[in-house]
Amino acid sequence: MMNYSPIFISLIPNLMGGEGHIIPYHNSISQATKILGWHHEVIYSPEENLPNLPDNWHGELRGNKLEIDANFIYKLQQIKIFSDSIKFYLKEKLSTNKLPQIIFIERFIHLQLFALWLSILFLPKNNLYIWVLYRHNFHQHKTKFFYKLLNKLLKKAVKPNHFHLFSDSQLLADSMTKYFEESFTVMPIPHTEFIEKLPKNNNNIICWWAGPPREEKGWQIIKQLSQCETIFADKFTLVTAKSADLINVNYGVKIILTDDNLHREKYISLLAKTDIMLIPYDAIAYQERTSGVFTESVIAGNIPVTMANTWMAKELLKFGLDKLIINWDNPQQIWQEINDIFHNEEIKIKLKLMQKAYRDFHNLSNFARQFEVNFSNKV
What we know:
Layout: E1 7-12, H1 22-36, E2 39-44, E3 57-58, H2 72-96, E4 101-105, H3 110-120, E5 128-134, H4 144-157, E6 163-167, H5 170-180, E7 184-186, E8 205-208, H6 219-226, E9 236-241, E10 254-258, H7 264-273, E11 276-279, H8 292-300, E12 303-306, H9 311-317, H10 331-342, H11 345-361, H12 364-378
Parallel strand pairs: 1-2, 1-4, 2-3, 4-5, 5-6, 6-7, 8-9, 8-11, 9-10, 11-12
């Protein structure tokens, strides 16, 4: 435990309407910092239709419009607005509080990172730390040079050892270390509640394609699965978000629709009921990038089926679970394969071993420990 505990500030430029794992991730940070005895607060850009947020969340930023396609002048204006909102929030804190202040950002584009750099240029920086967690393969994007430059600018803006990079994927961290020429810390994925599987009261196999529909997450594949006539129609239920626009067809599997952005309690409840998690994610987008859905499904004891040459596939291969890496070209064959997978006892035994390994690493205590170690080493 630190003699002088830092103030940990999560900076969220865009909450994406509450979509995905942004809110659960930062709620997990609140729990982790509580374990450490640190103070945590979240600053975000307000949006309509957000769920109720905890008291330590403050809608003081104005950064989400930077992700809108717009002309150069508009983007410059939005950079200034976002930068000013960060500076206004931090100025008094850094001027009057002698405690270490950690700014942590984990979902961003280069313009938002640039605005962060602008915001701290003329602020007191003796006690300021900048921690950046990369999730995406920005080292392969056309804007990769800007990220490399911004890392160097942010590092130079604060005191030595006060800037650090993180990832939640070892594959991604290794690739980015080479391109950015900076060391990375690999973090556990913390929003992984240990769920007790509910006993099945029928023989129906529940297959879930979780989250709002996206092309990179295999929307077209799921559409084909939903419209496919199969002899296994009575055995399966396919659960997807309403906006996926799927309908029940004759001799096809039963379809159940959920809200696009489920409250965490409903999400966990559905996770406990699910048998098969469908993860046909794009092999290029997810070559090194992690999936929270995949991690949660393994820890929950679900069976994840995924695409070859993805981070998820490489994780499965570590445990000899190559049968869960399937070819998604033929919908009828997929239903046959999933049926075989579900009844394969060897797969379930191997998944139990993977579940234990994941529970040992991806948990709040380990998440908190990684933060503490990084801060202790930088003081």
